[in-house]
Amino acid sequence: MASAETKETFPCSVEQFYSIITDYEKYPEFLDEVQGCRVIESNDNKKLVEFDVKVIKDFSYRLWITEEPENRIHWVFDSGDLFKVSNGSWDLKDIGGKVEASYAVDAKFKVFVPGPIAKTLVKVNLPNMMKNYHNRVASLFG
After folding, report:
1. What DSSP character marks residue 112?
2. What pTM did the predictor assign?
């Protein structure tokens, strides 16, 4: 299984960052690999979200995302043609008017991907993804 985690500080409030990470259908506007994203089903604080991504080729997958307003979202894999497992979370903490965002993901791919390559795919994408979140915060709240 490939795992990655990071902790970043963003110059916005917890509420503002939470609004970015839970506005799934806007992901294609700022996350390069996300071609489409839509909420398929919604039950209270739990949503089934479908992602269409392009990483070398096009893939789709669905995650059940549980929202804990203003503090945390976490997800578990539902279905798709890229992953066997995709579990992860965002944990948010206020640090003097800024947000400390901890991101973690565990992924296991359906197709055979050698361990070192899988880890590289997950870890190399992470800095790019965080840069895109920083840009999103700057464009909305900067």
Report:
1. -
2. 0.91
Give me the pLDDT at residue 57, please: 79
The contacts of residue 57 (CB under 8 Å, 6+ apart) are: none
Domain spanning 2-141 has what CATH number?
3.30.530.20
Element (H, E) at 97: none
* pLDDT tens, position by position, 53-97: 987 778 899 999 999 998 999 999 999 988 899 999 999 999 999
- Contact by Cβ (8 Å): 123, 4: yes
* Domain ranges (residues) in the chain: 2-141
Main-chain phi, psi angles of 121, to 5 degrees: -60, -45
Please tell me the distance from the alpha carbon of residue 99 to that of residue 119, in angstroms, as a whole number.
Answer: 27
How far is Cα 3 from Cα 65, in angstroms, rounded to an integer? 18
